């Protein structure tokens, strides 16, 4: 209906000067007319020019006053000729009417406040505010001074009105033909393709965005770490077992069975299967002996080692459990130096906060060779972290059950302007290595760090739950930049 009205009018007239007046005269909603004009303009059937007008409309408070009268007149009408006490007046009108109305009525000098009564000063009060609001509601003009007064009381609001003036376009026709988008077999068979008008191709239009997979920031940083290890000649360890026995996770690392880390408050124990079925018995016996009574120059821990504790299955608390398996396998063959690394998920029964999760990723590297020293460890650490862009390192003595000596690794962070702990390191103890069957002169240096901390620093994330877990913003996954560790 709207389209026929516009095209039909232009067939006999040169111009629609105002789309608003045109719509009102024909009883058509102006928005419908506007949509039709835009569509016809797109197909060049008409040419349209914008019309913009500013007008005033009533606020919600203004509409209320236009219907019920201004507060000052409502209050004035409530005051009897003999006057009324302030308390009685407050009871008879709404609190907002009393507050605003009394102020405006006194300003207009309609009422006066006595010691006991509120009384009229005039016999009649004209509700000029209501009259002005009704004129604005009807679209009539009022003086600028009155507009300023109503605007000051927030009874009116500015509103932009947009319409169009319309003329015939270069492709004008009294009736729009539907443009065909495709040439079909039926068109060719019937021969009506000669009469068809085809829709023009818009070669500048953008197609649908290609939806593809996106790499998580953790995967990007993980791949960079992996490439650094491979460049240094390391071999990746298989880390596909999230479930590990307590033996490989704790006992093989010379970690005593009463250690706090083996408590259920720190470790996730499995209910099914709750225990492991296969362990190398001769190796288990040697581990038991070194725990109970020592050996290889150690006094041990001097307690009764229990096989049932070692058999318990856990979600691995560190990837060092994988390292212990790999070193044991290495000891079963003629010795050859090895450099191993792993990057995978580990689990801790920790309270979740902005810097801790119950699961995270651990990066671990180790070098196994004859005659290694603490100096070799420090040298490898400098080489490894310099490839990450961290050349200013410090080391602090620390304690680990399965490394001695042990060191915490710190790097100076230029952004934070302070030393930041970036990892832990040490040399595996003889009580761990010799029961495996490794030669006595073989030493293993190792270090580890989390994957999440460097990723959070690189991507400016201060809450680990924004990086990993169900609260991650998918926009971060789709739009995060590439990762280039050690590149300024």
List keywords for this structure.
seven-stranded mixed beta sheet, alpha+beta, 488 residues, 22% strand
Shape: elongated
Tell me the helix content. 25-40%
Strand adjacency order, main sheet: 7-10-11-15-14-13-12
Number of strands: 15
Question: Which ranges are low-confidence, i.e. pLDDT below 50, for 5 or more consecutive residues?
Answer: none
Q: Mean pLDDT, nearest integer?
A: 87
Radius of gyration: 42 Å
Could you tell me the strand content as a percent range?
15-25%
Strand and helix map with partners:
Layout: H1 2-12, E1 15-16, H2 19-26, H3 30-42, E2 46-58, H4 60-68, H5 71-78, E3 84-85, H6 86-92, H7 95-107, E4 111-113, E5 117-120, H8 128-137, H9 144-152, E6 156-168, H10 185-190, H11 217-231, E7 235-236, E8 243-245, H12 246-249, H13 281-292, H14 307-311, E9 313-315, H15 320-331, E10 338-347, E11 359-370, H16 374-386, E12 393-400, E13 403-413, E14 418-428, H17 430-433, E15 442-450, H18 452-459, H19 474-479
Parallel strand pairs: 7-10
Antiparallel strand pairs: 1-6, 2-6, 3-5, 4-5, 8-9, 10-11, 11-15, 12-13, 13-14, 14-15
Describe this structure in words.
Helix 5 crosses helix 7. Helix content is 35%, strand content 22%. With 488 residues, the protein is of the alpha+beta class.
Compact overview of the structure:
By secondary structure, the protein is an alpha+beta fold.
């Amino acid at each position: 209906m709207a389209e026929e009205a516009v095209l039909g009018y232009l067939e006999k007239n040169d111009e629609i000067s105002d789309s608003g007046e045109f719509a009102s005269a024909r009883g058509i909603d102006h928005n419908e007319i506007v949509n039709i004009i835009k569509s016809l303009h797109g197909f060049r059937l008409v040419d349209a020019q914008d019309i913009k007008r500013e007008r005033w409309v009533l606020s919600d408070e203004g509409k209320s006053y236009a219907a019920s009268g201004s507060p000052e007149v409502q209050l004035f009408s409530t005051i009897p000729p003999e006057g009324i006490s302030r308390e009685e007046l407050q009871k008879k009108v709404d609190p907002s009417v009393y507050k605003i109305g009394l102020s405006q009525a006194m300003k207009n000098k309609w009422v006066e406040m006595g010691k006991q009564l509120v009384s009229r000063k005039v016999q009649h009060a004209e509700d000029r505010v209501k009259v002005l609001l009704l004129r604005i509601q009807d679209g009539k003009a009022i003086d600028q001074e009155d507009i300023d007064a109503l605007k000051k009381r927030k009874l009116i609001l500015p509103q932009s009105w947009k319409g169009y003036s319309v003329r015939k376009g270069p492709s004008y026709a009294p009736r729009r033909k539907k443009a065909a988008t495709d040439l079909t077999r039926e068109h060719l068979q019937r021969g009506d393709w000669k009469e068809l008008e085809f829709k023009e191709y818009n070669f500048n239009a953008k197609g649908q965005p290609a939806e593809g997979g996106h790499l998580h920031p953790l995967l990007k940083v993980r791949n960079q770490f992996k490439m650094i290890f491979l460049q240094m000649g390391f071999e990746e360890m298989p880390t596909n077992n999230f479930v590990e026995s307590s033996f490989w996770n704790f006992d093989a690392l010379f970690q005593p069975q009463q250690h706090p880390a083996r408590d259920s408050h720190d470790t996730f124990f499995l209910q099914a299967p709750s225990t492991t079925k296969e362990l190398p018995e001769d190796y288990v016996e040697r581990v038991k002996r070194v725990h109970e009574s020592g050996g290889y120059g150690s006094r041990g821990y001097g307690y009764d080692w229990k096989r049932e504790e070692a058999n318990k299955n856990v979600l691995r608390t560190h990837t060092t459990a994988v390292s212990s398996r790999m070193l044991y396998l290495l000891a079963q063959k003629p010795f050859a130096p090895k450099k191993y690394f792993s990057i995978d998920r580990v689990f801790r029964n920790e309270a979740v906060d902005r810097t801790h999760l119950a699961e995270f990723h651990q990066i671990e590297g180790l070098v196994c060779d004859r005659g290694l020293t603490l100096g070799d460890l420090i040298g490898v650490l400098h080489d490894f972290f310099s490839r990450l862009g961290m050349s200013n390192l410090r080391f602090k003595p620390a304690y680990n059950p399965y490394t001695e000596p042990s060191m915490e690794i710190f790097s100076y962070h230029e952004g934070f302007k302070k030393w930041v702990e970036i990892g832990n390191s040490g040399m595996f103890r003889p009580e761990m290595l010799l029961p495996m069957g490794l030669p006595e002169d073989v030493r293993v240096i190792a270090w580890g760090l989390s994957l999440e901390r460097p990723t959070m620093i690189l991507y400016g994330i201060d809450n680990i739950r924004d990086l990993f877990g169900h609260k991650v913003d998918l926009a971060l996954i789709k739009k995060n930049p590439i990762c280039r560790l050690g590149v300024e």
